[in-house]
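Student: Send me a single protein entry containing the residue sequence and its fold in token form, directly below this note:

Tutor:
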Amino acid sequence: MTFTDFKESLTKSSPPAGAHILLVSLWYDAKNDWQKAHELINDLNGTNAAWVHAYLHRKEGDTGNAAYWYRRAGKPTTHKGFEEEWTEITHALLQMASS
């Protein structure tokens, strides 16, 4: 799936079939359902899951918790715009999924 395909899927009522759970979380976030996005990511492990988790908590406004998750992800705390970070994470996850 390309980034364009993923972005276009946001016009639909459900995430792309077979999309990785991390991408599904970001899909719900882009649909303004932070709660569902966080629910999907909350119990996942790994650095990419931690990165999504960090982004979600930063977006929520919980910078302390976000900093914890950025450390777990091995990423510096960012001050990028939310859309820019969402795009960066989505590109990285799509690239991982296609490898």
Summary: The chain is about 65% helix and 0% strand. Residues 23 and 90 are 7 Å apart (CA to CA). The helical segments are 3-8, 21-30, 34-41, 47-60, 63-73, 82-98.
